[in-house]
Amino acid sequence: MFAILSREEIAPRFHRFVVRAPEIARKHRPGQFVIVMPDEHGERIPLTIAHADAAAGTITLVVQEVGKTTMAMGRMNGGDGFVSVVGPLGTPTHIERLGTVICVGGGAGIAPMLPIAAGMKAVGNRILTILGGRTHELVILRDEMAAVSDEVFLTTDDGSLGRKGLVTHALADLVAERGKPDLVVAIGPAVMMKAVAELTRPMGIKTWASLNSIMVDGTGMCGACRVAVGGQTKFVCVDGPEFDAHEVDFDLLVKRLRMYLPEEQAARERYLEQCRCHGEGGHHG
Ligand code: FAD
Ligand code: FES
Ligand code: MG
After folding, report:
1. What is the dihedral of CA 220, 14, 130, 172, to 10 degrees?
2. Which residue segments constitute the domains of the chain, with CATH numbers given?
């Protein structure tokens, strides 16, 4: 059992867990993730290690409620535990001093961005961060990202925080004003990462994306996380999660992410029904 030391709701449907996992905390490198099985009857889901504290023996996970498993996790608390946490998995981010790095994070993608921005800052890069979300509450971890950035630019779809519009608008203007950065890192919904890649490709700006494909084993054996990169088949769990964004077939990624939508919807309905039967409130449906 991996003890949950705390759970805090940092935004609507976003939870930050601090979990006791000393071995994982000791070995963790930016860009890596864990596969968590919250309870013995449930599924296994991949979650990025947003922060690791080797001295305290803890890892921090930031989880957005999107379906059955993440909704059930949102009801767990300090004192509960996860049945299994496997990791650290995935190829760590290649951290090097390049010059200026623009980090573009959208929604739940801001959590995986945090350790990458911190790692890139620690080796002397200038970090310009663009964070976006549908509305102000969904632009998470603003203080944490500001602490590892030289400058932060905020955008919301509804204009409730920062500039109204998409992260790609802010990115286009930033590049026009400041010139080409040495690297852009984009993490967020697949459509957002595709839009960033399409913007930076004609400008010849090196761009990485961290892919969020469906995973089962997380060790390269099941094939669930298959993506096409540069016309070749890659497994996100072992070859990634980061890839050259200009080489990624984002349309295939989106198609494969939607492969089990009817099953996911049914599992969510069954779960909500169970909660209603037990008279438990708290879920927004
Ligand atoms: P479901 O209703 O089952 O699924 C909702 C959607 O999530 C699906 O349509 C599908 O697109 C995706 N999904 C479903 N099952 C999986 C699966 N086994 N693996 C991956 N995606 C799935 N989310 C966070 O909130 N925080 C993170 O730090 C985070 N890090 C991730 C790191 C990696 C490397 C990957 C691949 C994904 C990460 N995710 C993260 C996404 C997270 O794994 C999914 O949101 C979660 O599995 C959804 O489970 P569910 O049962 O609640 O929702
Ligand atoms: Fe099974 Fe990547 S999750 S091969
Ligand atoms: Mg699920």
Report:
1. 80
2. 2-89 (2.40.30.10), 100-257 (3.40.50.80)
